[in-house]
Amino acid sequence: MTALEEVPVAAPQRAVAGRPARRGLRRREWLWGFAFIAPNGLGLLAFYIWPVFQTLYYSFTEWGAFGGHTWIGAENYAKLVSDPEVLKALKNTLLYAGLVLLGVPVSLVLAALINTPGLRGAAVYRVLYFLPVVTMPAAVGMVWRWLYNGDIGLINYVLSLVGIEGHHWVADPRFALYATAVVGIWMTVGYNMVIFAAGLKGIPKDLYEAAELDGAGPIRQFFSITLPMLSPTAFFVTVLTSIGALQVFDVIYLMLGSNSAALRNPAIDENQTIVFLFFERAFVDNDKGYAAAIAFVLLLVILLLTIVQFRAQKKWVHYA
Amino acid sequence: MSNRWWKAVAAAAVVVSAVACGGGGAESGGPVTLTYAIWDKDQQPAMEKIAQEYTKAHPDVTVKVQLTANKEYWTKLQTAVTGGSAPDVFWMNGPRIGLYASQGVLQPLDEQIAAAGVDTAAYPKSLVDLYTFEGKKYGLPKDYDTIGLWYNKALFDAAGVKHPDATWTWDDLKAAAAKLTDPAKGQFGIAAPADSQANYYNTIFQAGGTVISADGKKSGFGDPATVEGLKFWVDLIKAGSSPTVQQMSDTEPTQLFSSGKVAMYYGGSWEANGFAKNADLAGKVDVAPLPKGKKQAVVIHGLANVAYAKSKHPKQAADFAVFASGKQAQQIQAEAGAVISAYQGTQETWVKAYPQFHVQAFIDQVPNSVPLPRSKNTSAWAKHAEDLLLKAWTGEKDVADAAKELEKAVDEELGKEK
Domain for residue A136, yes or no? Predict the structure, then answer.
């Protein structure tokens, strides 16, 4: 929108009646532009922007068991700020996001390794690391839940071989969130790696050649050329990963949720994240108004953290 | 120029919305497809057979059986009802009927029951009453279930412990559980999960306690007798005779029992089907009546078929719901051995389906049975029970304290119902 206003009008305005030809043309171009973005724009309006306002409206209502809602003002928010469950879930969500961000440097290093010239089977590695990204989260969650099983899980079996006694990783409140974060990293590393690899491809070769002539070794090259040149990519990856991690639901639901209808996992209350709490309130307890308020708080948290990240990029991101 | 363009957009929008909103309006006479939602995989073949039988009698109606795991069934159904697109016919249980009937989600079936000539005296009265709301029948009972003590004969024989029988008391069970526990093998005497229907409701009633008062206004969780019934299970975990809550969260009690890691398991009559099909358990498993506490008691519950009020084909939906609980359908169900059919005289058929188990134990306990606790909005307070009792089961809270706290929370929810 602003881009259109910034187009300089080159033709000086003559005091002649009738519109200059330029303006008519611009209007038609403007219409065509809109016609082209309409399919996407309408989708965005219908499925993202409109629901945001709907959620905001519903967060001021109370719902009946099967739909129908009444306006109750800010009651949901009043309840929310003093709800220990919400605070705990927010804390867990931030911790989880922090843990998953540890995967970003890992994916950068992996991308650099895979990009090593003359590496054999690079394509195979790339596929292997990318597989978790394209695997259904439901399958991922179930398989990892089995791996983490305290009695018959593979992880504890391997630990027992080296004489370490394992725990019930996903049923023990002390470990459940960390266990889930490992899976969260495992699921995002491949995607971030591919983006970093693309970024690496974009660094001009002659920079490295010049550095080599000046006598810089590979380590020095990495820190003086690769890292600064990759910082825009790193920024992009960091922002996307944190947004994704703050919205985590699937792995939590699958790995920490109830295994059967009648039995609750003893670890879930201490380790639930905000979207999981939203799900329980909205669809299990059917308290949809309160759930909408929770969702809106999450939106504000994500917005705030993203603004902070955009502000902070001036300090460390170099746009060459 | 621009004007024409906007007109085109507007016209397109109208066409799109017309297509999206079209397709409504039920026309009778044409072929009709009904969806029938269920949650038990073991019963699916029987339900599909019932659907086919119905189509034989009504060639213009096809019934599609839709299976959803029990874990997600109620969440999915409630969301579908909120969105106005629930299945035409579906299974209903005791704890939820109050909510669904009071909110106008279900059709009263009295007319269809009369038209089909069904005599409701052929069903257990307590179950017919369970699905009657403000004088109208919203569901016809399809089955009933009680709980039994499933046990692994092979493990009993290996440990030299006498098999359970109708004379067993709580003490007999505790002693046997201790003897059957072998930490070296990772084997436990019994599974003691915090499961209301299968576990602690039964022991609460056996101890003489209550869950919800007869008038539905007060909770009985704080009653010392009720606490006894809860303690029974927590003590078994404390004694090491049962896996911990964490272990049972990682691996379900059913799985632990099926893999021979647990020797005894409180399970419903609905388990017979799965255990019979499990080749690993062939010849190893049997069932006995529940051991008695102060008195003998067992929880009885039964499902019903109900019809969705906003179905596109309300008449056919109601008709099929009555058919699926009728004599012919219950006979099919009993022959498949899926569950104990509710219709008078079909129980024998179910018992005959399992010559390898003493399933008569489930039927024999009916005279001592207590209906599954419920109120108008059961899940509102059941949620608190799940949360608080879990903390007692893990040892985080003392059982009596948790029960007291729970009593307060349940009373509060019951107060909201009026």
Answer: yes
